[in-house]
Amino acid sequence: MIPKLKASSDLFRSTGILIILLIIAGVVLKLSAGDPKADAWWQQPSPLPQAKKASPEAAPNPTGTSSPMNRSRTRASDSGAAASESVLNARALVDQNRWSEAEKVLTAYLKQNPQSEAALIEMAMIQMLDKQDSAAARPYLEQALTINTQNEVVVHELLRIYQDGRSWEEGLNFMRSLPNDSPYVSFGVGSILLELNRPVEAAEVLHRTVYEAGYQAYDVRETLAESMWSAGRGDEALEEFAAVIDGPYKPAQLRAAKIRMASLLMERGQTEEARGMLQGLQEADPNDEWVAYLMGQLGEARY
């Protein structure tokens, strides 16, 4: 019996080693070959780029400052709330990658100071960035916005969270429960209405936000133009994009607005106007892939 058991054991061991070697070989082959990637958008027979895809670059930061998601230590709470010693200690712990300890400090502090905007936002950042749980960050950010409706960055972070969770209706109900004296909250309401395919209402809210409240950040005006277009107000949408192009915005934002406006002109059959706008962009950057794509579409439209 013993020799048979030994033979079986040797066979089992040999088989196990062979399996391990095969697995390793497969991993090596996969790494050396690289995972197959999907074709780039301009290699696909796809329709024209839509509203939120006007630029292949990352969306420009609408506020012009670093957002909490960048963990640059320029924080949403810095826009209004003074940080207590406990919050500062928690930040120092996070900077040392000791976020679990920071979370305990903030939890204890919030039990005694539930209205601390800075602590609420710092706790939300830990949920979003360190724990990768945006849903857990949502109640902290909503409470922070209840305390200070003028915190622009918090509104933008909440819009990202509502998008991630597909919780637009809940987000709309929350934003509408807040005082209506904040242009940032109004932008949030208008953006959500557009996401919910209610462009007529979105355009009304966003028009007031831009032209009455004076909130004219790039993404606010871009969203207004998109809502006008979706609401069937094409001329006004193009006028809004033209106004954005004439405005004091960053080069990447101006480029995105021109590309989107050119695509809308193409949809309306105004190909020569679109071509003139795209040619200017192409001369500025011959390697611009979005412009090359749209120019290719114009070339196909000739035949």
Question: How would you describe what is shown here?
Answer:
With 303 residues, the chain is mostly helical. It is elongated. It has helices at 2-33, 85-95, 99-112, 117-130, 134-147, 152-165, 168-176, 183-195, 199-211, 218-230, 234-245, 251-267, 271-284, 289-301. The termini are far apart. Helices cover 67% and strands 0% of the residues.
Shape: elongated
Enumerate how many helices there are, as a single number: 14
> Uncertain runs with pLDDT below 50, 5 residues or more?
1-74
Radius of gyration: 26 Å
Q: Assign the structural class, choosing from mainly alpha, mainly beta, alpha/beta, alpha+beta, or little secondary structure.
A: mainly alpha
N- and C-termini, Cα separation: 84 Å
